[in-house]
């Protein structure tokens, strides 16, 4: 007999309005993310500005509201002045983060134009590794001001009369990491971030700032890093960043799909730390979270490290080009469900990254762009996960894995889009050994009817997509019932499920 799970979906059990930026992403000057990714003059699909239209169409399909740029580790030795103005006058630089050669043929001028075509906002990161408050202020003036001053005039001389209007700014990147160029101890970074944000707010008080949190939950300084840096910068920042990547090096699918338990611990710890500093400061201001780097990343780590060591200073080499499989898509779905459960505090999240580099979209240099397996859970969440996140009591069977205990067979949540008159349940059956009988009580939504039940199921855990064949793609599921406001179906073992209702 199949295990059973039941959830209650009530329109009054609201967690929070979902910030659309929860479905953000990330483009770094790394590998082929920019060159031969979003930008490739001469490609058959390239437009007049060299932007690949096939990539743009896939980005617009995902409906990505905000994209972090230009890094990542790259930003900590980034000279923004080299990336603007006439291309034939731009300086080539060595990128110390990824040991590659940066031509600066594509820069801030181009990225802001590309984002407009992608219907996305820019989330700009400033270099607080090797540069200063002055450089951040000059960049802000160049990007956002309409004054009769040097850097605003410089932007206009480069052909961009109107300011870019960038509202969300990252105060550096992973400054807790010893690998970071310009790495700083917590107090020193906290003071620099505070003074930089304070000065930038004088120039434009509508800006929002993201403070660098821990690079991952395993950092030896976590969560003291958050406590110390927030103590210094609390009054001037709005979000603290979180980064984490997940892998399955032990080839244990059940334990891999349980790793959102670790994510829950990470989120809980950072939220508690933010609230502790708020209490100490007796502040009415709440700091929220920007999970601005998340994904599965492990497939290419070893080969990438060898490549950078043996053949440095290449131009846009193939780096971090993980080819994702079916189980990776399931974990990404579980991560998105976890973010939705914490929509009251997780306001920004960036799938890292968007094209070619640990990405849902891949390109062939002389061929098409194509969708990886992880494209689909993100697409479904971005498309149907707008509105209010609901708290949904869930009863489910549990199982233990190699490193996790009491793992629920089903992880699920629901979103109420009041404007569209729709409710969507997102659910993953992560029980590797059996199907689960699933029911959802929607009686608070009088007259609710099923629109569709779609998802991913029945694939080999290691199934991948390619430019030539899409082996993993969504399908419609049948066999459900809806009676007196109660939905019932079977959730297949190891499946991603999107169940939509008209209400």
Portion of residues within helices = 25-40%
CATH architecture of the largest domain: Alpha-Beta Barrel
| The CATH topology of the largest domain | TIM Barrel
Q: Kindly report the spatial arrangement of strands forming the biggest sheet.
A: 3-4-7-8-9-10-11-13
The best one-word shape is globular
Structural class: alpha/beta
Distance, first to last CA: 32 Å
Features:
8-stranded parallel beta barrel, single chain, TIM Barrel, globular, Immunoglobulin-like, 7-stranded antiparallel sheet, 11 helices, 2 domains, alpha/beta, 503 residues
Write structural notes for this entry.
- This protein is of the alpha/beta class.
- The protein has two domains: 3-10 and 390-502, Golgi alpha-mannosidase II (Immunoglobulin-like, Sandwich), CATH 2.60.40; 19-133 and 166-384, Glycosidases (TIM Barrel).
- It is 26% helix and 25% strand.
- The chain has eleven helices and 27 strands.
- The protein has helices spanning 53-62, 108-117, 133-144, 150-157, 186-203, 224-233, 253-256, 260-281, 301-310, 326-341, 375-384, and strands at residues 3-8, 14-17, 24-26, 66-69, 93-95, 100-102, 121-125, 168-171, 208-211, 239-246, 288-296, 314-315, 346-351, 361-363, 369-371, 388-390, 394-396, 398-399, 407-408, 410-417, 422-429, 436-441, 449-456, 475-476, 481-483, 486-491, 495-502.
- The strands form six sheets. The protein has an eight-stranded parallel barrel, surrounded by five helices.
- Strand 9, helix 6 (224-233) and strand 10 form a beta-alpha-beta unit.
- It is globular, with a radius of gyration of 23 Å.
- It starts with a strand and ends with a strand.
